[in-house]
Every structure is written in structure tokens, then in C-alpha cells.
Request: fold
Amino acid sequence: MPNPHVPSTLLARHGEALDLFGARVHAVRQDQWDRPTPCTDWSVRDLVNHLTAEQLWVAPMVREHRTMEQVGDAFDGDVLGDDPVGVWDRAAAESRDVFLEKGALDRTVHLSSGQAPATAYCAQMVADLVVHAWDLSRAIGADERLPHDLVAFTLREVSPYADSLAGSGLFAPRLTPPPDADDQTKLLALVGRRV
Reply:
């Protein structure tokens, strides 16, 4: 089985995940920004804000080699302003560009959990984009089917640390999928989503 952290594979999945979530952002109607999502206490706007802020962190962490303490609260609160789709597009484009820079995936980044390879950081970003693309799809009534390659990647990525996700407060406890579940259903159960 190919290693999902091989740079070319990882960068392909990252770009696909950005495109997937971005397509859902572009599908949000003006009257849907305040709708609830499967993420407890998050509206559609809150969810898009969270993912946009995550993309804004990439340049300081990967390109500029800054620590979380050095970045501080720069991306706390509302980052979307009056143009949520435009801000998402710019943040996603910068995130993609930073990871595509020569040597970017060879670097070490300083995360809240300590130092980590940039490949691990990028893989976590992919997983977050994929899971939250489903959340956003459900919230706005868009197609909930996720691309197979992204589902398989995210399932491999999340499985080793799935049990710790609920403890973070950002995910519900894992569920038991039905015996005949497909990979998407297994992934969603792993992160506490009821299909």
C-alpha cells in the first residue's frame, strides 16, 4: 500500500481537500450562514471561520517557522469579516502555496502538542478539511458523498488517534458503524458523526 505521507501523494490530497471544502463554501447561500452544523455549538459561519483560520496559520507555522506563542491570538475570533467566501479563497490559496514551496514538507513545525514534521501537520489539515466538508454539506443540504481517495486517506490518518479526539472537546465520542459500513460511514463513525 502506498505511503499517504509521500510528498506528492500528500500534496495531492491536500489540494483536493481544499477544493472539496471550498466547493461547499461557495455553495453556502446567504440565508444559510447561521444554520446549525453537526459540530455542536457551531453555525455554518463558525465552521467556515474555523477552517479559514486553520489555513491562515499555515504561512506563519511552515513558511516563517514561528511558534504558536509567537503567532499568539492573530487568528482568534472572526477572521471572515464581510466577505467570508473571498477570505476563505485567499486563505486556502495561501495554504496550498505554502505547502507546495520547495522543502516545505521537510520542515518541522511547532504545534500545540509540540514539534511535528510538516508532513504530519499537512495530513492533519487534510483530515480536518475532509471531515468538516461533510459537516458543511449536511448543514447546507449539499451532496454528502466524499471522494473515495480523501476518505481512505483520512481514515488511515485519523484511526491511530481517534480515541483522543473526543477528549479534545472538538469531536463527539466515536460510534460503532454497522458491520457492512463503507469507508465513509466508518470514518464518520470514528469522529462521532451520525449519518
Notes: The two ends are 28 Å apart (CA to CA). The longest helix spans residues 118-140.
